[in-house]
């Protein structure tokens, strides 16, 4: 008997592989392991894996301290039980063979992502769902070479993942209803509020946030206001938790540049996609924001 769309059950995710152990991959791994999912984090760089494990531990300690304020034993139990569900690896093939879900969170570069997805598709079971955490690239481009696109979709998390409550779930034109339902259910299982997005540049949040940020960089570059005053103005004038310069340093200036460069190249006539000479200069100097110790501000 054929199941109707409404009756189609979401598949429960028990085993997750996250590829990319940077800011986002670490956070995604943490919230998933915290939701009783077994997680393998893969990175081509062993040092990134070590840094990720340390970062997850310190973030978990903050979460545990808040949850069990006066109970140190409960705090360490939580930290230990979550860390015990996370293993790390530098080998993609071995790490994805038993996964129910693979989430890619590597550098925002189309060729590198396409290459990785080809490798992942060949090494996974036919039932494994594969997802990208891309900030800005079209799923149709990232997944161009996939043989089966019905099991492919987008899971766009926000930084810092343990604190940000939103998850954008993105549908590629060929994503099946069953895959989409499973991605939505996974998002809820890891404690996020999900919104459905189409495969359009920046989905919902970044389509609004990134042009706004570049507008702020322009305001400063024209000499119309200081970075500090722009940040204060947006925090106190609109209630945003961070101003645009503070937030760009938090996201990573390299990531901001990858996003804008990609859009400018793909949509050269869209006036909301513009360049910032200052951002280009900072990235060229290796000033990527908080993660490198300096960006618009020093840390
Ligand atoms: N792990 C665990 N807990 C954390 C944490 C982390 N990484 N970061 C912050 N916290 C907790 C702290 O423990 C603290 O809890 P208590 O108040 O109970 O002690 C609480 O969060 C507040 O932290 P802080 O006092 O250090 O700082 P804050 O009040 O400024 O909050 C923030 C930090 C949550 C990051 C807040 O500033 C914020 O929401 N900033 C905006 C972030 C944002 O807009 N993110 C989206 C970026 S865009 C994106 O991600 C998409 C993309 O594709 C680029
Ligand atoms: P990051 O630079 O912190 O980490 C990327 C990690 O990927 C690095 O550890 C790197 O060693 C690893 N890597 C690169 N190529 C690899 C490969 N071929 N195989 C295995 N590992 C590889 O980056 P990030 O900020 O975590 O961003 C990751 C993805 O998430 C990007 O697509 C980005 O656009 C997206 N994203 C970022 C944010 C943010 O605020 N930074 C928010 C949402 C989504």
From TrEMBL:
Q: Key word Lipid metabolism present in the record?
A: yes
Which catalytic reaction applies to this protein? a (3S)-3-hydroxyacyl-CoA + NAD(+) = a 3-oxoacyl-CoA + NADH + H(+)
Q: Which domain of life is it from?
A: Eukaryota
Which UniProt key words apply to this protein? Answer: Fatty acid metabolism, Lipid metabolism, Mitochondrion, NAD, Oxidoreductase
Q: Which InterPro entries match?
A: 3-OHacyl-CoA_DH, 3-OHacyl-CoA_DH_CS, 3-OHacyl-CoA_DH_NAD-bd, 3HC_DH_C, 6-PGluconate_DH-like_C_sf, 6PGD_dom2, Mito_3-hydroxyacyl-CoA_DH, NAD(P)-bd_dom_sf
Can you name a GO cellular component term? mitochondrial matrix
Can you give the residue ranges of the 3-hydroxyacyl-CoA dehydrogenase NAD binding domain? Answer: 16-200
Question: What pathway does the UniProt record associate with this protein?
Answer: Lipid metabolism; fatty acid beta-oxidation
Instruction: Give the Gene Ontology MF terms in alphabetical order.
Output: (3S)-3-hydroxyacyl-CoA dehydrogenase (NAD+) activity; NAD+ binding
Q: How does it assemble?
A: Homodimer.
Q: What is this protein called?
A: 3-hydroxyacyl-CoA dehydrogenase
Q: Tell me what organism the protein belongs to.
A: Caenorhabditis angaria
């Amino acid at each position: 008997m054929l199941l109707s769309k409404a009756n189609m059950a979401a598949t429960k995710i028990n085993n997750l592989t996250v590829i990319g152990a940077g800011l986002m991959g670490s956070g995604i791994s943490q919230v998933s392991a915290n939701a009783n999912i077994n997680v393998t984090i893969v990175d081509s760089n062993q040092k990134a894996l070590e840094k990720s494990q340390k970062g997850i531990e310190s973030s978990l300690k903050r979460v545990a301290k808040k949850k069990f304020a006066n109970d140190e034993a409960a705090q360490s139990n939580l930290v230990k039980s979550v860390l015990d569900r996370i293993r790390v690896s530098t080998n993609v093939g071995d790490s994805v063979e038993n996964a129910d879900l693979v989430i890619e969170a590597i550098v925002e570069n189309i060729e590198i992502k396409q290459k990785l997805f080809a490798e992942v598709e060949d090494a996974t079971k036919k039932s494994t769902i594969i997802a990208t955490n891309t900030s800005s690239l079209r799923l149709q481009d990232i997944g161009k070479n996939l043989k089966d696109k019905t099991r492919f979709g987008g899971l766009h998390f926000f930084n810092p993942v343990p604190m940000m409550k939103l998850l954008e779930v993105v549908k590629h034109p060929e994503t099946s209803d069953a895959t989409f339902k499973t991605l939505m259910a996974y998002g809820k299982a890891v404690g996020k509020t999900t919104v459905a997005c189409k495969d359009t540049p920046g989905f919902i949040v970044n389509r609004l946030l990134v042009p706004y940020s570049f507008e702020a960089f322009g305001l400063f570059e024209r000499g119309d206001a200081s970075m500090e005053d722009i940040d204060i103005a947006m925090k106190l004038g609109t209630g945003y938790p961070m101003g645009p310069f503070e937030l760009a340093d938090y996201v990573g200036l390299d990531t901001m540049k990858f996003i804008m460069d990609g859009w400018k190249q793909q949509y050269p006539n869209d006036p909301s996609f513009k360049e910032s000479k200052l951002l280009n200069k900072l990235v060229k100097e290796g000033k990527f924001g908080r993660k490198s110790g300096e960006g618009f501000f020093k840390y």
